[in-house]
Specification:
By secondary structure, this protein is mainly alpha-helical. Helices cover about 40% and strands about 10% of the residues. A hairpin with a 6-residue loop joins strand 2 and strand 3.
């Protein structure tokens, strides 16, 4: 038995057998009988059926607020209103902005704006991280 530590694939060779058994991820592998000619071709491009991308429009309550301008100036979001920080940091930012601006349905608003899912989960993860207190303090300093 031979083990390839990089790919975590185990090859089983049986005496007198012309067969190998691969246990593990074999994506991207090419198999051929000894002496066979193999020609690889790229897969045909897949059509993009996702439809037109929804344009990112910053909600008026954000766009017109002094807090949003401070967030942009601090580099926490880019010119298009997309976060430049990690998912957990963005969730903390969204929570703080929503609280201070009175935004109801905060996760729906920011998930649509930032093309994300499960921001509530990101927020909960952030609260479990040691660095969240530092980030929250930094956000308070920026937004005050």
């Amino acid at each position: 038995m031979e083990e390839d530590g990089k790919k975590n694939v185990v090859n089983n060779f049986e005496a007198g057998s012309n067969c190998q058994v691969f246990n593990g991820n074999i994506s991207g592998c090419v198999f051929a009988m000894p002496g066979a000619m193999v020609t690889q071709q790229a897969a045909p491009p897949q059509p993009n059926n996702s439809g037109p991308q929804e344009e990112c429009v910053v909600p008026e309550v954000l766009a017109e607020s002094e807090l949003w301008q401070k967030v942009k100036e601090a580099g926490l979001v880019d010119a298009d209103g997309q976060p430049t920080v990690s998912r957990t940091e963005a969730a903390l930012l969204a929570n703080m902005l929503a609280r201070r601006l009175g935004i109801t349905n905060k996760w729906k608003v920011f998930e649509r704006l930032w093309h994300r899912n499960n921001m509530r989960g990101d927020y909960n993860s952030a609260l479990e991280q040691r660095k969240s207190l530092e980030i929250q303090e930094r956000l308070k300093n920026i937004l005050d």
